[in-house]
Structure formats: C-alpha cells, structure tokens
Amino acid sequence: MLNMAKQTIANRTKTAVGGAERIDLRSIRNFAASLSGDVIVPGDHRYSQARRVWNHAVNVHPAIIARCANTQDVVRTVEFARRYGLLTALRSGGHSFAGHAVCEGGMVIDLSSMKRSWIDPLRKFITIETGVIAGELDCLTQAFKLAIPLGSCPSVGVAGYSLGGGEGSLTPNFGYGCDSITRLEVVTADSRVQVASAQENTDLFWAMRGAGANFGVATSIEFQLHPVETVLSGHLKYPLRQAKRILRFLAEYAPAIPNELFLIAAVLPYPGDRMLDVAVVWSGKEKAGERVLRPLRTFLKPFEDSIKVNPYLEEQRSGTGTPAEGDYSSHRKSGHFDQLTADVIDVIADYTHSAPSEASGISIIYWHGPWCSGSHDNAFGFRRTGFEYWIHTYWKKSGERKRSWEWVEQFYAAMKPLSTGAVYVNGLEDEGDERVVSSYGSKYARLTGIKREYDPDNFFRVNQNIKPAP
Ligand SMILES: Cc1cc2nc3c(=O)[nH]c(=O)nc-3n(C[C@H](O)[C@H](O)[C@H](O)COP(=O)(O)OP(=O)(O)OC[C@H]3O[C@@H](n4cnc5c(N)ncnc54)[C@H](O)[C@@H]3O)c2cc1C
C-alpha cells in the first residue's frame, strides 16, 4: 500500500498541495516514507472512498490522508501538518454529523487502521487503539460478559463517541462512555506523547473526557468495564396516528422509571407508513424489569411488542434503524426539554404528521438517574435529567434535500422556545460557537484555559471548537 501511495505521489510531480505554505512533492514523498502506515492523496484509486464520511452531505477534498499505523505515525503527521500550516482533521469512525473527520485542502489524521486492543477481564479494564469502532468493542468485551456504555450503531468510532460524552442504553446504570475512561495516550499539538489519567496531566484528563477532540489526538484509551450479560429489551411499535396518546403516557411514566431503564421513543420509517417506536433496554433483574415495563406494554396495544430477554450483544446488534454508512445525506438538530408538556406533544405531533419523507423523524431519549443529574468530575457538559431530542432527516437524491432540510429547521424553530438550550456536543452539526458553549455550559470557561495550555494556536480546530483563553 505504501509503495502504491508513494508511486501515486511520484506520478503527480506537476502539482503540489498547499496549506498555508505550498508543499513540494519530495517532502510529501519523504513524509509518506517516514510512516509505517499509508498516505493517500488525490489521484490514488482509494482517495474517493477514503475522503468520504458517514454523512454524504459532507463532500470535501483533503489534500493528504495519513492512515497512521501507530502513535509514532501520529507524531510525525502532527509535525508535518504543523510545519506546513495544514488545516488538520482527525478521523476515527468518521461518523460526526458535521463531517469533522475530513477538511477541505488539509491533512486528515486517519486512525481507522489502529485497532490493537488489550483486555484484562479480571481487573475489568480494556485498552484500545482509537481506530476501534463500537461493534468491534462490544464483541471484544462481551466475550467476557463485560461492556462499556456504547450506542447501538456498530460503525460509530469509539474515540469520537466517548471523547464527546457517549450515550448508550447502559448510561442510566453505568454512566456515559467518557465516565468509564481511566487513562489516555494523547499526541498533543506540540507533537509530544502525553499520558492523561487521574495521576498524570490531570487537567488534560478532565478535558479529554467530554471535549477530547480539542486537546490532541488520543491514540489509545483505557476503559473500566462493567459486568453485563443479558438485558430485557425490545420495541413497542404503534401507528403514528396514536403518537399523541403514547407521548402523553410517556410524560407521566418516564419521570418515575428506575435507574436500570433506558427509554427512547422515535418516529421512524416503516414500510408504507411511519410509526412511533418505543424502545427499552432494562439492565437490572429480569423480574423487576417485567414489573416496571408492564404498564408501558399494556396501556395501549402496539402492533408489535418484541420485548424479551436478549444477550446484550444481540440487543446492541439489533441497531436503531439509522441508515448504513455512506448511503445517505443527513441533516439534524438536537436539544433538550425538561418535560413532555402538552405544547411539546402538539409540536411533535404536528411536524411528524407533515414530514416530507419516510426518513424524516424525531428521537426522544429520557435521561435520568445519578449519572445524568449529579455532578461528575470531567468535561462532559450534558448531564441533564429530562428529554433529549434529535430531529433528523435523510435523503439520497439531491432534489430531496431542500424540503427535508427546511422541515428540520422549521420543526426545530418550533421546539426551541420549549427547550432548555442544553445540547449534547456529539449531536451538533456545524452550528456556531454559541451552540458549542451551550453544550459545555458552566464547564466551558475551564476548558478555554486548558485549551490555552495544550493547544494555544488552536491547531485542533476541525471540531466543535473551544477557543483558547486569551
Ligand atoms: C448512525 C449514528 C448513530 C449514532 N449513535 C449515537 C449514540 O447512540 N450515542 C451517542 O452518544 N452518539 C451517537 N452518535 C454520534 C457519535 O457519537 C458522534 O458522531 C461521534 O463524534 C462519532 O465518532 P467517530 O469517531 O465515528 O467520528 P469522527 O467523525 O471520526 O470524529 C468525531 C470527532 O471526534 C474527533 N476525534 C476522532 N478521533 C479522535 C481521536 N482519536 N482523538 C481526539 N479526537 C478525535 C474528531 O476530530 C471529530 O471532531 C451517532 C452517530 C451516527 C452517525
């Protein structure tokens, strides 16, 4: 592969890529030769695939994609990008809604090949390199009946997910993904390899858990694991015309549920129509779960009830109904409200009934329990009891874009006055500084100080950006 990349670069002797400074091709060749991994540039047959991210609405052309094989490659790539003033993006799973895994005309530090992992099932710890994706991590940990809270989309990168917070069905019980991080290896903007943990670089450790994209390239992450074997889980599916009744029921039911229950209601595509899907994951004792879920399962007959005891891995693999990687363009807006009031329910019912396509909907997750309400000592800024929502739309043909996009914007504009303003940073697209500040709340000021210390020039800025304090 490396030879092929070198060949491609050598063949392109008449053009040079440019960041702040133009780079001669000999330098790119030398850089490629210095890596154990691979370099992909325009013209390489792999380039069009390598520059693509999950959200096909993002269509940018990086100058160099460095597929790093190890930490030393990352160090060399940071040095190279800094030397030539290249705008630099970091890619793990490539699932950021905003497309922050790539950048126009710059360098991509692509970690997707770095997948070594070490598990200690007795002490219940795992260390992964940051190319590992959620489905891979679930398989590894479930071999020992252990888990960390992960979402149910298997192709999401564990790094982007957990460094931004990380919400999953185990969160009410075990916290957000970032809460299970115990140690990181990070290449910082000065191209040093630093360890961040409760003992070393404690400010960096605090900041990486919730705002990690801003402070360096995490090359490995250690997580504390939790025992999980089976869960009581499944879906209750209702025709969309019953949405109001169900949401009114959830308004009363959700605030009283125990910590072990994860609850999400979503308007999703269904052949021929759309539906309201109420999904649950109970990670406590089965009998107690049956008792807690009985009122939900019986107050109104769904056209499908698939709730049963499942191996946790199977539940994770059952997915969320989101389209597969690279198939669709998407647009979304997310936020948070405290209560499912009559006004909120009216807005949701109005907009979901007038959606432009099957693939346009809303997901609402009820967050609760000690991990969501109490204060925890890291940078994650969305610890809020209440309902998080994601208004989303997907399209394949560019002609569908305008109507779908406008529907999301109008729906969000109607929800905004009913919302608290809080937002999960990983739920953002490119929405400006104000939304980033909202996602960190009272933690933002401390983060700007740590940014000044570790990245005063804002080298890591293709992200939900925290500006260095003056
Ligand atoms: C289909 C789908 C389902 C999702 N489901 C969930 C869910 O259930 N729960 C949830 O919490 N979120 C979910 N998300 C959101 C997801 O957590 C974020 O999009 C996350 O940022 C994706 O991480 P990634 O590594 O795949 O993305 P990337 O685009 O590769 O990276 C995302 C961000 O992280 C930074 N980054 C990546 N790697 C590193 C690194 N090694 N060191 C430092 N910074 C790095 C990048 O700079 C970028 O800013 C979902 C997203 C999608 C598309």
Give the class from helix and strand content and strand pairing: alpha+beta
Query: pLDDT under 50 segments (min length 5)?
Result: 1-16
Please give the CATH architecture of the largest domain.
Answer: 3-Layer(aba) Sandwich
Describe the sheet with the most strands: 8 strands, antiparallel
Strand content: 15-25%
Helix content: 25-40%
The gross shape turns out to be globular
Notable traits:
470 residues; Uridine Diphospho-n-acetylenolpyruvylglucosamine Reductase, domain 2; Uridine Diphospho-n-acetylenolpyruvylglucosamine Reductase, domain 3; 8-stranded antiparallel beta sheet; 31% helix; binds flavin-adenine dinucleotide
What does this structure look like?
The chain has 470 residues and is an alpha+beta fold. The chain folds into 3 domains: 2-110, Uridine Diphospho-n-acetylenolpyruvylglucosamine Reductase, domain 2 (2-Layer Sandwich), CATH 3.30.43; 117-227 and 441-454, Uridine Diphospho-n-acetylenolpyruvylglucosamine Reductase, domain 3 (2-Layer Sandwich); 230-427, Vanillyl-alcohol Oxidase, Chain A, domain 3, CATH 3.40.462.20. Helix content is 31%, strand content 24%. It is built from 16 helices and 19 strands. The protein has helices at residues 2-11, 25-34, 47-50, 71-83, 134-142, 158-163, 171-174, 202-211, 243-253, 286-298, 312-317, 342-353, 370-373, 401-415, 433-440, 444-454, and strands at residues 38-40, 64-67, 88-91, 107-110, 117-120, 125-129, 146-147, 181-187, 193-197, 217-224, 226-227, 230-239, 261-270, 273-282, 304-305, 308-311, 329-337, 360-367, 386-395. The strands form 4 sheets. Strands 12, 13, 14, 15, 16, 17, 18 and 19 form an 8-stranded antiparallel beta sheet that branches. Helix 1 (2-11) packs antiparallel against helix 2 (25-34), helix 9 runs antiparallel to helix 12 and helix 12 runs antiparallel to helix 14 (401-415). It is globular, with a radius of gyration of 22 Å. The protein starts with a helix and ends in a 16-residue tail after the last helix. Flavin-adenine dinucleotide (FAD) binds next to strand 3, helix 6 and strand 10.
